[in-house]
Amino acid sequence: MDYLDALSRADVVGAHPGGLALTEWWLEQVPLWAGAAVLDVGCGTGATALSLAERGMRVTALDVRQEMIDRVRDRARQAHLALDTVVGSAEALPWPPASFDAVIGESVLVFTDIPVVLREVRRVLKTSGFAVFVEMVAPTHPPSGWHQEAARVYGAREVPTLSSWRDRFLAAGFQPAVLRAGSIWSLAREVPPSGPVHGADVAMLGDREVGRALAEHFAWMERFGQTLGYGVFMLVPKV
């Protein structure tokens, strides 16, 4: 079982840099409005998608894992919120061009083919729209084994540096702005922490495979966490 499978099985919410507290922060920084068509790419168990729906937006939640989408549907039903859910890949979004006012993703791009996903996001965005991504950021001079262990523990295909993120966004046809960036450690001091087991099904945390995956996460953070950064990026299509 990999890290993302463990998050799904344990029903963890807010498993991205800064957790739900950072989500609430960036939601106050961007021009979203009631009625906006918003795509949540890699929605996980749906905390952000539901928060957007509560604000009156027309939300579509996409995730590659059926189990994640099932949890989103259950939460939406319990909260009496309307949103669309789709099982699918961020690398092949099943919508025509200019379908959304905004696309958001939190700790998603590093697990994908980044250029492919950004091109897809650019395609489905209206020219008047924007995207927001919250992502891990690699140090400029990482310790030995940093990227290899990030790939092994998390399944991360690529974790760019801050400047490399900017290059990826520009190459995909976006004008990027950094809304917030820094170290994970400093972020933990600035916003209330919501750790990797936030909102989890406590019973599932005792599952052997889930426990092993989360233990590897904690071990990685103990070894490399002080060098791990984060970024909150807002992307506007270049026209």
TrEMBL record:
Keywords per UniProt: Methyltransferase, Transferase
Superkingdom per UniProt: Bacteria
Pfam name, any one: Methyltransf_11
A biological-process GO annotation: methylation
CDD domains (alphabetical): AdoMet_MTases
Single GO MF annotation: S-adenosylmethionine-dependent methyltransferase activity
InterPro entries: Erg6_SMT_methyltransf, Methyltransf_11, SAM-dependent_MTases_sf
Domain Methyltransferase type residues, every copy: 39-133
Protein name: Methyltransferase type 11
Species whose genome carries this gene: Alicyclobacillus acidocaldarius subsp. acidocaldarius (strain ATCC 27009 / DSM 446 / BCRC 14685 / JCM 5260 / KCTC 1825 / NBRC 15652 / NCIMB 11725 / NRRL B-14509 / 104-IA) (Bacillus acidocaldarius)
